[in-house]
Amino acid sequence: MDPPRRDPRGDPRPARPPPLTCAPRTCRRSTAAAPKAPKPCADAEAVTTISTGAIIGAATDVLARPGPSVLALLGASGQAPDQIRAVHAVRPLTALAVFDLDRARR
């Protein structure tokens, strides 16, 4: 059995894979110099974060009972603020509990 991978910074927890929101998006824009060279045309991380928040807001509106006003969030990485805002838009929150392995993000 292989030993567990270690984070290169010395963190005793196993190294984590790169974030799932790293997805470059390109589109084809023709120019005289490079007629078919792909050029970045969208910030994929922002698009992914916004669309995930929108889906969570819509799912909360359709699936959650109207009464609860407390949100427990598991994980507080880059998408967390948009997810909180999306839930709060459809169910006004009175309390928020955030759980994350990284103490700085709690």
TrEMBL record:
Which stretches does the entry tag as region Disordered? 1-37
Q: Which InterPro entries match?
A: NAD(P)-bd_dom_sf (IPR036291), ODC_Mu_crystall (IPR003462), ODC_N (IPR023401)
Per UniProt, the ranges with Basic and acidic residues bias are 1-14
Q: Pfam families recorded for this chain?
A: OCD_Mu_crystall
| Protein name, per record | Orf7
